Amino acid sequence: MDINLKGQMNGLQAAEEILPYNIPIIFVTSQTDEATATQIKKLSPHYIFNPYNKNAICEIIVMILNI
């Protein structure tokens, strides 16, 4: 989930709506400020910063799925 979504809500707000359904969320962002990082960590332990590579995403997915 990107932090910056087009539309009425941002990625953090969308994640708050999705979390009750126990769907894992991986945040992707280039925002590295402390306030954003704190919000991300409250919602999901899984996040990567831009620029990222395919291996980083694969590692997180494997960790989430416990395979």
How does this model look, in words?
- Helices cover 45% and strands 9% of the residues.
- By secondary structure, it is mostly helical.
- It has one domain.
- The longest helix has 12 residues, at 54-65.
- It is globular, with a radius of gyration of 12 Å.
* Low-confidence segments: none
How many distinct beta strands?
2
Number of domains: 1
The radius of gyration computed from the alpha-carbon positions, rounded to a whole number of angstroms, is 12 Å
- The secondary structure category is mainly alpha
State the separation between the terminal residues, measured CA to CA: 22 Å
Shape: globular
Biggest sheet, open or closed, and with what strands and sense? 2 strands, parallel
Count of discrete alpha- or pi-helical segments spanning 4 or more residues: 3
Written as H for each helix and E for each strand, in order along the chain, the element string is HEHEH
**Multimer state:** single chain
- Strands of the widest sheet, in order across it, are 1-2
Helix content: 40-55%
Q: Give the rounded overall mean pLDDT.
A: 88
Strand content: 5-15%
